[in-house]
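Researcher: Next sequence.
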Amino acid sequence: MKKIMQLILLVCMTITLVACETKTKEFTKEGVTITLPTSFKERKADNALVYYLSRKAMFMANKNKKQDYPILCQYNDPQGYADKLRNDEYLQYNKKPADYSLVEKGNDGTEFAWLYYDNTVNKIEYSYMLVVKVAGDNVYIMNFASLKKDFEKLSSDFMEYAKSIKVAA
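Model: Next structure:
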């Protein structure tokens, strides 16, 4: 009887832990909707319209009009935007160009481009997953980030979060 009670207790604890880890919430702001764990909280940032932070990770997003960035107007797909950012503007500014960019389909069927890069801020090393989504006349440039030492563990989660992103045209 004692062993059965221990087994029942163990099963209940496991279910509770799994349930705590998988609670998610849909966040919507500035035309960006994303499903993240409930551990993420909205914060304010000077360099992002959308900014969510947890103890281990960060998500930020900016919405840009194509016509406000003439150099980007030549591209009509997420891959083109990501390649342009990778090669010239965004990552060169950070002095850490990425080696590649890839296109993936989101849960809603729309494509997004993504790439990984590293950057050091105040002598702390971070790793990022840059995500680019195009909708109508808008280009959304988004980043997931964590400490570099945690990134490998979090990168598959970041991809799942990226697949949940929906953006407004």
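Model: The first strand starts at residue 24 and ends at 29. Confidence is low (pLDDT under 50) at residues 9-14, 16-20, 92-97.
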